[in-house]
Amino acid sequence: MENPKILVVDDTEENVEILNELLGEEYDVLSALDGEFAIEIAHEDSPNLILLDIMMPDPDGFEVCRRLKEDPETENIPIIFITAKTDENSIEKAYEIGGIDYITKPFKPKELMAKVKRELKLQELYRQLELSATTDPLTKLYNRRYFTDTSRQLLNLARREKQRMSLIMLDIDKFKSVNDTYGHKAGDEVIVSLADTILLGKRKSDFACRYGGEEFVVVLPDTTIEGAKELAEKIRENVEKKTIETEGRSIAFTVSIGVSEIDVGKEANIEAGLKRADEALYEAKKGGRNKVAVRNI
Questions:
Q1: 214, 226, 240, 245: which is the annotated catalytic residue?
Q2: How far is CA 20 from the centre of its chain?
Q3: pTM for this one?
Q4: Is 139 within the bounds of a domain?
Q5: Kind of pairing, strands 207-212 and 215-221?
Q6: 140 phi-psi bin (left φ>0, alpha ψ -120 to 50, beta other)
Q7: Domain end position, chosen among 102, 128, 154
Q8: In this structure, are 82 and 182 located in the same domain?
Q9: Which of 16, 123, 151, 277 could join 258 in a cystine, given CB atoms 3.0 to 4.6 angstroms apart?
Q10: 3-class SS at 33?
């Protein structure tokens, strides 16, 4: 696991060296001697935390903080101010523009390390909470709730960029018989195996989720229905070739897949596209399973 990255910003080299020495054993420390370079590093390296001096030549720490917080790419990076100023107005301003804490000069090593560790621990807790709220615990794919929000954003993007957008809906064939014959633990392994196959088969830009039970959905931005069908066939074939070994038994399974395209120019959300994909999936099941069916707009 990589060490957290901390960006130290101070126009006094001696202070930067002191902070490097204090933090360097536990963290990857980046440094900048002026505000403009600090903003550049924040964009390029996305540090986990910034220690930012207030009293610097133009731009000063307050201005650097303001610019970072106004930029969507850097607004969520926490900033702890470094300051020799202890008057209430300066401290109040530090919090008002987005700072989460402050450390006074001269540095007190134990105080500094305690504040840095506390903030990084909070970040990790927030990350875990966000992960548990957005992902399916079994497959680690995104869950249906997160899918609803993200698919809406992807559709808006497709509309702005005047791009095509398609959907794939997958369902494990005769999944109940898998559970009845091999048990629910084996059924879970089948679900995880399909999730892994989807992740390996999809492109980086595609968005996959566990939609419910043994059902999965993949959103394919900038993709025609023909391209979506091609990917669906690839996933179907990869599943068909796969065998799961569990408790001394081999389990083979197949999937049926429905493919549809979103009418980006007319449809306000992806619900109609999902309905068409579901109808195509039903056709695939009705046609003998282990098939890909397409439902056009």
A1: 214
A2: 30
A3: 0.65
A4: no
A5: antiparallel
A6: left
A7: 128
A8: no
A9: 277
A10: coil
